[in-house]
UniProtKB/TrEMBL annotation:
<feature type="domain" description="Acyl-CoA dehydrogenase/oxidase C-terminal">
    <location>
        <begin position="209"/>
        <end position="330"/>
    </location>
</feature>
<keyword id="KW-0274">FAD</keyword>
<protein>
    <submittedName>
        <fullName>Acyl-CoA dehydrogenase</fullName>
    </submittedName>
</protein>
<comment type="similarity">
    <text>Belongs to the acyl-CoA dehydrogenase family.</text>
</comment>
<dbReference type="GO" id="GO:0050660">
    <property type="term" value="F:flavin adenine dinucleotide binding"/>
</dbReference>
<dbReference type="GO" id="GO:0003995">
    <property type="term" value="F:acyl-CoA dehydrogenase activity"/>
</dbReference>
<dbReference type="InterPro" id="IPR013786">
    <property type="entry name" value="AcylCoA_DH/ox_N"/>
</dbReference>
<dbReference type="InterPro" id="IPR036250">
    <property type="entry name" value="AcylCo_DH-like_C"/>
</dbReference>
<dbReference type="InterPro" id="IPR009100">
    <property type="entry name" value="AcylCoA_DH/oxidase_NM_dom_sf"/>
</dbReference>
<dbReference type="InterPro" id="IPR037069">
    <property type="entry name" value="AcylCoA_DH/ox_N_sf"/>
</dbReference>
<keyword id="KW-0560">Oxidoreductase</keyword>
<feature type="domain" description="Acyl-CoA dehydrogenase/oxidase N-terminal">
    <location>
        <begin position="7"/>
        <end position="99"/>
    </location>
</feature>
<keyword id="KW-0285">Flavoprotein</keyword>
<dbReference type="Pfam" id="PF00441">
    <property type="entry name" value="Acyl-CoA_dh_1"/>
</dbReference>
<dbReference type="InterPro" id="IPR009075">
    <property type="entry name" value="AcylCo_DH/oxidase_C"/>
</dbReference>
<dbReference type="Pfam" id="PF02771">
    <property type="entry name" value="Acyl-CoA_dh_N"/>
</dbReference>
Length: 353
């Protein structure tokens, strides 16, 4: 396995994102409602991270999968209520692979225009443009259009205004909207048909980014509860001195490190490996992270005890974030089946984008 060893520029990006994510994140449920999302989105645009997957003159993306991973982990850990995953990664990558007009991609990189990918009802794949009933616009804050696939290959842009109704989800930091009727008027085809390799490449990056978001949330949640265990006193002792607490936190740390290693390799493979190999790495990372993230979130809630189960505390926000991450583009079982197909040389099977 090749792990993504960060170069100097990527280390600087990680440090910068640590600071930036903290300024746009949510420390409790009230912060989500009171946050200035427009200002936060502008800050991400100014930092240049919204345009990482826009292609340069050579056709290569401006930023690598490793850099996308760095940003996604930081924003996931900060519980940022901004559609980086949905707009800057999933949607922009689809648009770029389809050869969307340069001015449209530039508006996305500048933060002036946002798109949301339309997922199937169970969130496991990209919705079909001719059957949007029940389709879900993922991470859709501020998005004017949704992206779907026609005939499994042609990218279609669909107006969201008035067609997709906001729906509450488990994750309070990201918005979802659902189509309740037929496709609205005004849909348009964007770019050229996507080749199977393009769709594999897109799904590999998308799975990796979603898993990276979960890793960031896992790490931040565990760091917070470990710090709490050094201060909370019960029976005259810091609870962090109790062996049961130590073992729970140690097991959670193992999950975090293993998930980080899987995602790190998948992030490198997203650009450097062949599409099928990149997809295998991404499904492996998603399968492990989808399972491990829930274990870590549950451990964190248990160590916090009663305070961690209150609405005002941040613990449930981490749990809600990873609950959504584990479902987007398929849960652990879905990815394990795809890993089996790829390992057996049978191809990934139909993944609906």
């Amino acid at each position: 396995m090749v792990l993504a060893l960060l170069n100097d520029e990527q280390q600087m990006l990680r440090e910068m994102m640590g600071s930036l994510a903290g300024s746009v994140g949510a420390g409790n449920p009230r912060d989500i409602a009171e946050s200035d999302r427009g200002k936060g989105w502008a800050a991400l645009a100014e930092a240049g991270v919204l345009g990482l997957r826009v292609r340069d003159g050579s056709g290569a993306p401006t930023g690598s999968g490793v850099e996308v991973m760095i940003v996604a982990e930081a924003l996931g850990g900060a519980l940022a209520p901004l559609p980086y995953l949905g707009s800057a990664v999933l949607a922009t990558e689809l648009l770029a692979l389809a050869g969307a007009p340069a001015d449209l991609l530039q508006r996305a990189a500048d933060g002036a225009e946002r798109h949301a990918v339309l997922l199937t009802r169970d969130l496991s794949g990209v919705a079909a443009a001719d059957d949007l009933g029940g389709a879900v616009a993922f991470d859709s804050w501020g998005a004017a259009h949704g992206l779907a696939l026609a005939d499994g290959r042609r990218l279609v842009r669909v107006p969201l205004d008035g067609a997709a109704k906001p729906r509450p989800g488990a994750d309070l930091t990201r918005e979802l909207a659902r189509f309740t009727g037929p496709a609205p008027a005004g849909a348009e085809e964007i770019g050229r048909p996507l080749a199977p390799a393009d769709l594999d490449r897109w799904r590999a990056l998308a799975l990796t980014a979603v898993a990276a978001d979960a890793v960031g949330a896992m790490r931040a949640a565990l760091d917070g509860v470990v710090a709490y265990s050094k201060e909370r006193v019960a029976y005259g002792q810091q609870i962090g001195s109790f062996q049961a607490i130590q073992h729970m936190c140690a097991d959670a740390l193992v999950h975090c490190e293993a998930a980080s290693a899987c995602v790190s390799y998948a992030a490198w493979a997203a650009d450097a490996a062949e599409p099928a190999d990149a997809l295998l790495a991404a499904h492996t990372a998603k399968a492990y992270t989808a399972s491990a993230a829930l274990d870590v979130a549950e451990t964190v809630m248990q160590v916090y005890g009663g305070i961690g189960h209150t609405w005002e505390h941040v613990a449930h926000l981490y749990a809600r974030r990873v609950l959504l991450d584990r479902q987007v583009l398929g849960d652990a079982g879905h990815s394990l089946l795809r890993v089996a197909d790829l390992r057996l040389g049978e191809g990934p099977g139909p993944e609906e984008g």
